[in-house]
């Protein structure tokens, strides 16, 4: 991870690469509406910061987008994809909503918990996985399903879960 | 039987259905070229969409042509078309496949919509977890831009239109159109008071039309083959084919694009029928927000807005959740109630507090600690949420509770009386708390 600059003048914040990506988002919205870029911007920053958002990171983004700090915190705390504390290197999001439940997500949940030795909302002691129970991810015809980092895995069985976990470095 | 996949899934038979090349093979972008070439009158397009009886595919079923006609299209200044791809209603997963398999049709639909309502910019708000659909849609945008369908003076017509993707970040409420606008403006997604409606005061306070992904992706096909052709695919007042997401206890879960008005029994057969050795018990026909319908009524129901309405429920987003006789209705409702509790944005007291009450009471019934007054208490709470909130999430939380208890009261009563389930469960049930 490249060291990000989080204080100082706006044109030196983060890294050159990140500034370029943020600017391309800001350009999608009308002049004066840079705040619209806050959601994609938080995604980018989280990705470059070991998967979570620290307070200095959000403060720097407030400067960059010319927003009140509180408005950045409001967004970061409202949406579930943002992490406000350090997490495991890989995030497993298991859906247990109605279509997945009908198709056996409870079995998958207990299998995952047993195999990883953690409950929902916890991280394995080696810091490799964080396991979460999430709401519908919109892949109900593939129930039961989970999201591992950026990848959907559908029609899960305990054996399939094992293969998925074994495939993660 | 009528041929399936004639609208949003019409490229599905190709190996790579998402490419511009394949989209062109089914007539893609022809309609747009013709409209821009002939400078078709906006009123004429609206008239055709009205005549097609296309109704909103996102849940409310509002007539699309009528919605478009509300836009002050001659008014100077910025106006916007926004696509709602924040697919998150439990049981719904059709927009994901439209974006993965036919993104160009959505793009063409959005450009035509922009032209018709006088907008020069559009945003497709896609839920943040949809990494693959976002990537597919972005690739298609690049192709469309290179082909000259986006940007300034499109195909020399003088019409300018830019289209962007905007990701969400995990919030069911952003599927509510004014919460979506707030989110698009970089705020937490809390719904706005209406009126003013988005057609008058929308994105950045400018006139805005918001349509669902499937609705916008249906537009090019309607204009290509004509309003009558589309209307006749379905039934009067319920034009077209519609994607139904068949999930739960069926042998072949999947997205099926079928004529509106198809009998449920036929649709169930397409999805391989109910699991071996089991009987159909109940169906939630339009996503978790819509009232549950018992099997015998459902088997007599036509899959259209009006048909499902007659059965006491709603077509919603076409998210058909099938439950067989192994389903404990208390447990199913508990999961649904937890969802609304988790997803309430917290703005209105009846919803913020009421959804928690609903979940906790159903949770204790499920866990064998229900009290005799609990069923009346649930109805009372649900009725006090219903209609007393800014947006429809409150009603969405109340509808399942009221309908589950109405149709399966004896099952809830059994839980309270015996402290256990009257439906035999595969696995012993332990105490379970969500969240």
- Run of helices and strands of chain B: HHHHEHHEHEHEHHEEEHEEHEHEHHHH
Kindly report how far apart the N and C termini of chain B lie: 46 Å
Number of strands of chain B: 11
Q: What is the mean predicted local confidence, pLDDT of chain B?
A: 96
Query: What class, by secondary structure content of chain B?
Result: alpha/beta
Oligomer: heterodimer
Major interchain interface with per-chain residue totals: A-B, 45 and 59 residues
Q: How would you sum up the global shape of chain B?
A: globular
Q: Helix count of chain B, per DSSP?
A: 17
Question: Helical percent range of chain A?
Answer: 40-55%
Mean pLDDT of chain A: 97
Low-pLDDT runs of chain B: none
Shape of chain A: elongated
| Alpha-beta content class of chain A | alpha+beta
Radius of gyration of chain B: 22 Å
**Beta fraction of chain A:** 5-15%
Query: Poorly predicted ranges of chain A (pLDDT <50, ≥5 residues)?
Result: none
Span between N and C termini of chain A?
18 Å
What report would you give on this structure?
- The complex is a heterodimer of chains A (169) and B (435).
- Chain A is of the alpha+beta class and 169 residues long.
- Helix content of chain A is 40%, strand content 12%.
- Chain A has a five-stranded mixed sheet with strand order 2-3-1-4-5, covered by helices on one side.
- The longest helix of chain A has 12 residues, at 105-116.
- Chain B has helices at residues 20-25, 30-38, 42-51, 64-69, 94-101, 103-117, 131-146, 177-184, 213-225, 227-233, 264-270, 295-298, 305-310, 329-343, 349-366, 374-385, 393-418, and strands at residues 80-85, 121-126, 162-167, 208-212, 241-248, 254-259, 262-263, 280-284, 293-294, 302-303, 319-324.
- In chain B, the strands form three sheets. Chain B has a five-stranded mixed sheet with strand order 6-5-11-8-9. Chain B has a four-stranded parallel sheet with strand order 3-2-1-4, with helices on both faces. A two-stranded antiparallel sheet of chain B has the order 7-10.
- The longest helix of chain B has 26 residues, at 393-418.
- The mean pLDDT of chain B is 96.
- At the A-B interface, helix 2, helix 4 and helix 5 of A face strand 3, strand 5, strand 11 and helix 14 of B.
């Amino acid at each position: 991870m490249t060291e990000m600059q989080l204080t100082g003048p706006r044109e030196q914040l983060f890294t050159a690469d990140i500034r370029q990506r943020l600017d391309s988002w800001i350009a999608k919205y009308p002049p004066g509406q840079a705040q619209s870029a806050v959601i994609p911007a938080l995604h980018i920053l989280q990705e470059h910061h070991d998967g979570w958002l620290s307070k200095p990171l959000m403060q720097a983004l407030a400067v960059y987008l010319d927003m009140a700090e509180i408005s950045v915190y409001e967004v970061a705390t409202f949406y579930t994809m943002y992490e406000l504390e350090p997490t495991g290197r890989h995030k497993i999001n298991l859906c247990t909503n109605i279509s997945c439940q009908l198709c056996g997500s409870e079995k998958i949940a207990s299998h995952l918990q047993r195999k990883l030795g953690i409950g929902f909302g916890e991280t394995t002691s080696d810091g490799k996985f964080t396991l979460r129970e999430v709401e519908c991810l919109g892949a109900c015809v593939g129930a039961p399903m989970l999201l591992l980092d950026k990848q959907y895995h559908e029609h899960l069985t305990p054996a399939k879960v094992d293969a998925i976990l074994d495939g993660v470095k | 039987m009528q041929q399936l996949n004639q609208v949003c899934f019409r490229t599905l038979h190709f190996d790579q259905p998402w490419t511009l090349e394949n989209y062109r093979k089914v007539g893609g972008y022809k309609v747009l070229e013709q409209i821009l070439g002939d400078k078709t009158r906006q009123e004429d397009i609206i008239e055709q969409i009205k005549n097609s009886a296309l109704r909103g595919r996102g849940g409310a079923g509002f007539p699309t042509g009528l919605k478009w006609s509300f836009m002050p299209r001659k008014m100077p200044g910025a106006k916007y078309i926004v696509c709602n791809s924040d697919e998150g209603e439990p049981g719904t997963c059709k927009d994901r496949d439209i974006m993965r398999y036919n993104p160009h049709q959505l793009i063409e639909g959005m450009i035509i919509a922009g032209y018709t309502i006088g907008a020069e910019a559009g945003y497709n708000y896609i839920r943040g977890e949809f990494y693959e659909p976002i990537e597919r849609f972005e690739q298609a945008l690049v192709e469309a831009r290179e082909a000259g369908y986006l940007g300034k003076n499109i195909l020399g017509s003088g019409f300018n239109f830019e289209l962007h993707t905007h990701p969400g970040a995990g919030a069911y409420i952003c599927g509510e159109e004014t919460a979506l606008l707030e989110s698009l403006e970089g705020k937490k997604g809390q719904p706005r008071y209406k009126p003013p409606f988005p057609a008058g005061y929308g994105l950045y306070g400018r006139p805005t039309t918001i349509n669902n992904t499937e609705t916008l992706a249906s537009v090019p096909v309607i204009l290509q083959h004509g309003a009558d052709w589309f209307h006749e695919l379905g039934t009067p007042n319920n034009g077209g084919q519609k994607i139904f997401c068949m999930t739960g206890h069926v042998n072949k879960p999947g997205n099926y694009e079928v004529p509106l008005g198809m009998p449920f029994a036929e649709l169930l057969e397409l999805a391989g029928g109910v699991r071996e050795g089991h009987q159909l018990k109940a169906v939630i026909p339009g996503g978790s927000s819509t009232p549950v319908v018992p099997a015998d009524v459902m088997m007599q129901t036509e899959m259209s807005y009006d048909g499902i309405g007659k059965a006491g429920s709603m077509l919603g987003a076409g998210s058909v959740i099938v439950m067989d006789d192994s389903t404990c209705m208390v447990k199913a409702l508990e999961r649904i109630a937890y969802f609304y509790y988790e997803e309430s944005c917290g703005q209105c007291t009846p919803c913020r507090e009421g959804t928690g009450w609903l979940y906790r009471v159903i949770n204790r019934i499920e866990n064998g600690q229900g009290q005799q007054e609990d069923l009346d208490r649930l109805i009372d709470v649900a009725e006090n949420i219903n209609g007393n909130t800014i947006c429809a999430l409150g009603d969405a939380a109340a509808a399942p509770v009221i309908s589950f208890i109405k149709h399966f009261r004896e099952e809830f009563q059994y839980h309270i009386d015996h402290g256990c389930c009257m439906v035999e469960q595969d696995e012993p049930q332990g105490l379970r708390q969500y969240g």
